[in-house]
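tool_call: predict_structure(chain=1)
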Amino acid sequence: MEDKNTQSVRDNKMTVQMFGGFSMEYQGNPITFARSSSTKFIQLLQILLLNYPQGIAKEQLIDALYDRESGVNNNKNLNNVIYRAKKQFAGAGLPEEDYVVLENGICRWNSSFPVEIDVVRFEKKVEETLAAEGVMRKVLLEEAEILYTGELLPAFASELWVIERQLKYKKHYEQIVRELGAYLKEDGEYNRLLTLYRKAAKIYPYDQWQQMEMDCLVSIKDFKGAHELYRNTVRLYCEDLGGIPGQEIVTWFCEMESQMINPVASFEEIQENLSSGATSEGAYYCLYPSFLDICYLLAREEERIDKSICLMLINLTGIRGEEITNLEKLETQMEFLKSVIKKTFRRGDKFTTYSKSQYIVVLIGITEQSCAIAFARLRQRWKQTEGTSGELSFAVKSLARMLDQEGCGVRR
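tool_result:
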């Protein structure tokens, strides 16, 4: 049974979360600072807690807080922040104490009650893990992985002192996930392994953890989940990022796709899978890797079907041709444009997102000269559609010529 002294220590404890966001609790209640609290005060607090309990040299602290500023007396500025901090802590409901102590050139956090910080616990757990072996190492890996709930202080990710620590902790986390993953895979614990990789992919969506996630889904024969993961990953890289995937990413998509093996099925099940997209009218929208496959296939068939095939790149800009910098507005207008393209072009035409402000369409049985007429119809419908704004322009080139040119936009 817990004695009263232990109970009192536990109740008076302050807990701090710095992974995935910044929050503090004292005696189980959230600590909320006044809205008027300066950014420098919050950063001072975070730096001291990151360097708990040993503290940080005053010169380093000044560099971290004022490195990008040209203040002539940053030493005085720091002293003012420390002086005002006492009022901030009292206003947040903490006992009246001198929490920020400056002794012998070292600035540190000081409190009469214990402080539990997720970052400090994580670092300690990593040290314990490195020194352990066998079953105990696996247990410590699991405990360390649980503590890492997201990137360090994401709201301050542009600060140099945060970036340095972020890289350090990310490296530790990646090593933990890979080593723990190897243990779980060896033991055949694929459901736990899937949870592990899903968390890693959520924290770092652009670090290709989805490949490991795909391995797990295939291993537990969740083929539907594997297909869904593939589509969502392609959409994330090709659409949400708004850029053009390079050869490395396209190759990675191909590797993911090769892992997706359907179970033995009947034609009825295949028909059910196909029917969802068969009834759509107008041009067919597909993800970028699928669009590339379509282009390669059409290029091989172009001579046999005796029809010219063109690629049309459609650009969305402001009224005067300027780039649309308001991302929310751009996303809305791109959705409008997607709908207009579907309605304007034929059912046999295919298109995909090429960048944040561009779509690319493959048109069958049409010359480069005739593409101008097709674009005019698109532009007219765009102007007539309620809610649209901005200007459209286009460029066109035959698929055969594109593929004949090394390093062109379609061949990667």
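agent: Confidence is low (pLDDT under 50) at residues 406-412. Proceeding to next step.
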